[in-house]
Write a structure and sequence with these properties.
The complex is a heterodimer of chains A (172) and B (240). Chain A has 172 residues and is an all-alpha fold. Chain A is built from seven helices and no strands. Classes of the chains: A mainly alpha (172), B mainly alpha (240).
């Protein structure tokens, strides 16, 4: 398959996930857009360079792992350069499902903001595994490849991450 | 709070999605950027290559057309025994397809006359090698003309003109080559036609001039000159 077409499919499949992953870490739609587009730009350049030659030893065989890694590095660089955290107002992601009445909607908006803040308070590794597993619906083996840990270590991380989140939410 | 409820709360965060316009534009910017650099060059090259290919195709067609046109033009001047004569014959046969049955005897006589012209040119050049094929071609045309003439219901003035010309040219060539060119088939047809015409005229009431022409026709017929006998009968039937 043509490399451009191949990467186009990867883009379509992972753009929402990478954006959400970045957004939950930077708490700003604008910054999330910038860092996500940079992630895919860097991903495309590397993908094209390394996958154009079949004999290349550094073939990108796991594009999602590669993209999450780029995104994570960019987030780290962002905080290193800016030295600040922007909190996004909860109204930006209000629940607008018309089937839900006002009281339920208010509760859900409250839950959204509560979970988002609670997740933000977790340590980096716990945030990542929760996002991978429960938001991006990656399997444990897939997460293991991304974080470069054993599947057992991922399961343990997930268990501890959920426990930490539960504590954070109870505190709220 | 159990684990299921907790996971349910986490899943609320799936609402976080990028703007659709941004997703489309970003994809276009990232995957489209390549086109502005080497991609654009490559596309331009492909367009140029396509145009060049079309140009080459057009040029090749034009050259082929010129070659074919030139071949046909040269072929018209070719003589029997020459390589291009076959093209000339093909052209003549193609033309013959579009000629009506009534017009065929005249057209065949015209062709026979052309073959005689070819024969005259060969005789002038004293090109002995082409002489035999030229005579064969002439006889083949005469044979074809005879067949068509035998089928003809009426013999018109144009046939007379062509016949006269054919006889005149044949005599000239026979003198030049000091040999007789056999046209028996045509002679036989002339004989039959002349005989029939003489009988028709004898059974008709004739004017003085017609009677004279009939007498001349009979003389030619008796002398074995059937073509001239036919000519005189046709002249008699067309004179008042």
């Amino acid at each position: 398959m043509n490399l451009r077409k191949e990467f186009s499919k990867i883009y379509d499949k992972y753009i929402d996930k990478i954006y959400r992953f970045v957004f939950l870490k930077v708490n700003s739609p604008e910054v999330a857009e910038d860092l996500t587009s940079e992630t895919f730009l860097k991903g495309w350049v590397a993908f094209r360079e390394q996958n154009s030659d079949p004999k290349n030893q550094n073939h990108i065989d796991n594009p999602p792992a590669f993209l999450y890694q780029i995104a994570r590095n960019l987030v780290v660089d962002y905080y290193r350069e800016k030295g600040k955290t922007q909190i996004v107002p909860a109204e930006d992601y209000r629940i607008i499902d018309p089937r839900i009445n006002l009281e339920e909607r208010a509760n859900l908006n409250s839950d959204f903001e509560g979970v988002r803040r609670a997740l933000n308070n977790l340590k980096e590794d716990y945030q990542d595994v929760i996002i991978y597993r429960y938001l991006d619906e990656l399997s444990v083996p897939e997460i293991a490849k991304i974080v470069q840990k054993s599947e057992d270590a991922v399961r343990v991380s997930l268990h501890r991450a959920l426990k930490s989140l539960k504590n954070e939410l109870n505190l709220d | 709070m159990n684990e299921k409820t907790l996971i349910g709360k986490i899943e609320i965060l799936r609402q976080i999605r990028p703007r659709k316009n941004w997703v489309i534009l970003t994809k276009k910017r990232i995957l489209g950027e390549e086109r502005t650099l080497p991609g654009l060059f490559l596309d331009s090259f492909r367009v140029f290559q396509g145009l060049f290919f079309q140009y080459k195709l057009a040029l090749a067609s034009l050259v082929l057309l010129f070659i074919l046109g030139g071949t046909f033009a040269f072929a018209q001047k070719s003589l029997p025994g020459e390589p291009l004569f076959i093209v000339k014959k093909m052209t003549e046969k193609t033309r013959a397809v579009f000629i009506s049955e009534e017009e065929k005897p005249k057209a065949q006589l015209e062709l026979a006359n052309r073959r005689l012209e070819d024969l005259a040119k060969i005789a002038e050049k004293n090109d002995v090698r082409k002489l035999a094929p030229a005579i064969d071609e002439f006889q083949a045309n005469v044979s074809e003309a005879a067949k068509n003439l035998a089928k003809a219901k009426t013999v018109g003035k144009d046939i007379v003109v062509q016949t006269q010309e054919l006889e005149k040219n044949k005599e000239k060539i026979e003198k030049t080559l000091a040999t007789q060119i056999g046209t028996e088939e045509l002679e036989n047809v002339y004989k039959d036609l002349a005989e029939q015409q003489i009988k028709d005229l004898e059974n008709s009431s004739l004017t003085e001039s017609q009677t004279k022409l009939l007498a001349q026709a009979k003389e030619y017929f008796e002398a074995g000159d059937y073509s001239n006998a036919l000519i005189k009968t046709i002249e008699a039937s067309q004179t008042k």
